[in-house]
Specification:
Keywords: Cytoplasm. By secondary structure, this protein is an all-alpha fold. The protein has 14 helices and no strands. It has three domains: about 100 residues, no CATH class; about 40 residues; about 55 residues, Arc Repressor Mutant, subunit A, CATH 1.10.10.
């Protein structure tokens, strides 16, 4: 497949005109909207009693796949299920997604890296990040190095300070509360103990 063909399909403005955009839908009249092809709106045809799929195939399925990918990154498993809702043939979806993955238009690696960065900003530990990757059917080994290189003690300590302050409590009940809080956030016990025992002037 030539780059020119992909570039043409990746022209977001063209795709937006073909498929519509959420904001544009709110602004266009019902007459105009009726002329815009939108698989998600056609998923349910209220003119009949049975639910109908748009039955996308070939270039229309391919174009819809690119329209989806221009809006956000999807894991391979997520993209398959997304496209299968509107496709006529699941085997065609599997073949298309494999092709998009090989051409790097879809990447589990990118999704994993984006998730790692996002979850760390939210104060989530490695266990919760791995669980979220598993839910998206992404192999955590894709970011094994990044997980290993992250200073999880520092991450847990900063979260503990934000929630409980810098004091190192000797009260078993308070310590237990802090441990539960950090465990819920997905940190491992070794990092938790070091974090709640760490004083402001301590350096590793």
């Amino acid at each position: 497949m030539s780059d020119a063909k992909f570039n043409k399909l990746l022209d977001y403005e063209t795709l937006k005109q073909q498929f519509g955009d959420d904001e544009d839908k709110a602004q266009t009249s019902s007459t105009t909207s009726a002329l815009v092809f939108n698989p998600e709106e056609r998923l349910f045809d209220h003119s009949t009693q049975e639910t109908k799929k748009p039955g996308l195939t070939g270039s229309r399925l391919r174009s819809y796949a690119f329209a989806v990918l221009t809006r956000k990154e999807y894991s391979k498993a997520e993209l398959i299920e997304k496209l299968a809702l509107y496709a006529d043939n699941r085997d065609e979806v599997l073949k298309l997604v494999d092709e998009l993955s090989k051409e790097n238009y879809q990447s589990d690696q990118r999704v994993a890296e984006i998730m790692l960065s996002s979850q760390k900003r939210k104060g989530k530990g490695p266990n919760q990040i791995k669980m979220k990757l598993k839910n998206k059917k992404i192999d955590a080994s894709l970011i094994a190095d990044e997980l290993k290189e992250t200073n999880w003690v520092q991450q847990a300590y900063e979260l503990k300070v934000k929630k409980y302050g810098t004091d190192v409590s000797k009260d078993p009940k308070i310590k237990a509360k802090q441990i539960r809080f950090l465990m819920y956030r997905g940190f491992e016990m070794d990092a938790i103990i070091k974090a709640i025992s760490r004083k402001p002037n301590d350096f590793e």
